Amino acid sequence: MGQNAVITGWGHYVPSRVVTNFDLEKIVDTSDEWITSRTGIKERRYAADGETTSTMSFRAGRMALEKARLRPQDLDLVIVATCSPDFIFPASACMVQDALGADRAGAFDVESACTGFVSALAVARGLIVSGTHQNALVIGAETLSRFLNWKDRSTCVLFADGAGAVVVEASNASVGIESAVLHSEGSKGHMLMIEGGGAKVPATAKSLELGQHFISMQGGEVFKLAVKSMADAAEEAIAAANLRQDDIHLMIPHQANIRIIEGVAKRLHWPMEKVFVNIQKYGNTSAASIPIALSEAAAEGRLRRGDKILLVAFGGGFTWGASVLEWFGEHEPGRPKSIVERASRRVEDLVDRVLPS
Question: Which CATH superfamily is domain 4-327+334-349 in?
Fold first, then answer.
């Protein structure tokens, strides 16, 4: 039997600054009732001065490593899913790798907007199942508060900041990430985008005047496509895992909008008690929303060893995808074989220091 990829650690970080709907009423033509009824959001978190995608990723990643009992020096890969990196380059993952002291790890970013974490998890799974890597730190993180147009109440009330992370390791156990499906429709990318800041629309006085560096969205079209696409991807991922919908213990969807989440559940005939929702606390944190929710679900005791979990997302691009995993948990029998390999590497490192070649 080949090796599987399992989640052995998890963690999340959200900034301490809480911004409520009542706070937004003071600066935007909106109301708590309008925001809540249309989105389900009551409050969100904004990064403090000095906080960035990489610094939040570091904090979430460190928590996940501690949960997995894995040293940064033992990491093979650091992957950060984000559409709000610190810089165009270098990759935010490289700064996280450096901050952690993961001196053996490769590092790169994945950009597929709100689908980013599902995409990055699929990449990590493929590399581990193929045998080329033994572990990866997979992070979803965003600092979207710095791309908000405060004159556009349809978008500025939605997006927020935070980071979530998981450690994925090779295992001989039968559990693991059991399926991953990814799709895209680039012809509709203009419906949800940040137009400015890249090679096509570089920063100029005109692009700033036109507000092209802010998030823009055609909400109605996004809603319709998101519900159908997420429901279709969920069914595809469940089938790819050779499971039935009744086998799934919990669905953790991208936290974009409560109406989208409820629309997906309705289309699938899925009871809301089997859907994890925390959008009311954090708003739409894009690629960070699923790993934050996964970490919170674990902390609340809603994930038990052997549970089948469905992750599903939709984002700009357009991109969408889903993944089914069997929850591995922590400190249980069947620990990943990589823990033995890590111990062997430590012995080899010690021998190299004592008996240099």
Answer: Thiolase/Chalcone synthase (3.40.47.10)
